[in-house]
Design brief:
The chain is α+β, with helices and mostly antiparallel strands. It has helices spanning 2-12, 19-26, 30-46, 69-81, 86-98, 103-110, 115-123, 142-148, 159-163, 170-173, and strands at 17-18, 51-56, 59-64, 101-102, 127-132, 135-140. Helix 1 crosses helix 3, helix 2 (19-26) packs across helix 3 and helix 5 (86-98) crosses helix 7 (115-123).
Length: 176
């Protein structure tokens, strides 16, 4: 069961996970986690599948098989470099002007679930996630700010007015 849980965690994680994190998430001793990870690595590496598990120091990550690089690259370029959807553009704009912003606040402003859009924007490197306790907050990535040709988000047009606009008084501040 432990291997199955670790495999699932590695599959959904968008970053390497440390043995310490895996032990905390699974509520198991770090030695048991390390043994389970090594067994998973052996299982994945013994077959010629599309997924591998890499270990680097005290961190592990599920990755695509390097043999499939060209196909993965072509898919990724098409999937994540095309134009943003209107919903993605709207979400990115809200994050730009209201960030750092929690997912709850973002969804309150937009009125819809933003999970998939947030993941897509993070994969594209346009936003980054910051954990504060149990909550995640989103802001523009430094790389995206650089690509916009500005030094700070406060240089965006109407930033001060829009950044400080509260959800409840947006109509009042619109004429300022």
């Amino acid at each position: 069961m432990l291997k199955s849980i670790i495999e699932s965690l590695l599959f959904i994680a968008d970053r390497p996970l440390s043995f310490k994190e895996l032990a905390r998430f699974t509520k198991e001793e770090i030695e048991k986690v390390q043994l389970a990870v090594r067994e998973l690595i052996d299982e994945y590496n013994s077959r010629d599948g599309g997924i591998k598990i890499l270990e680097n120091g005290d961190k592990v990550q599920a990755v695509t098989n390097p043999k499939n690089y060209e196909w993965v690259k072509n898919f990724s370029q098409e999937e994540f470099s095309g134009e943003l959807t209107p919903a993605s553009t709207e979400t990115l704009s809200v994050i730009a002007y209201r960030g750092p912003i929690s997912r709850d606040d973002l969804e309150q402003i937009r009125g819809v679930n933003c999970a998939i859009i947030l993941r897509n924007l993070m994969i594209r490197g346009l936003i980054e996630e910051e954990k504060r306790g149990e909550k995640s907050f989103y802001r523009l990535s430094l790389d995206f700010i650089r690509r916009l040709g500005i030094n700070h988000v406060s240089e965006l047009p109407d930033y001060d007015r829009l950044h400080n606009l509260s959800i409840s008084n947006s109509d009042q501040n619109d004429n300022s």
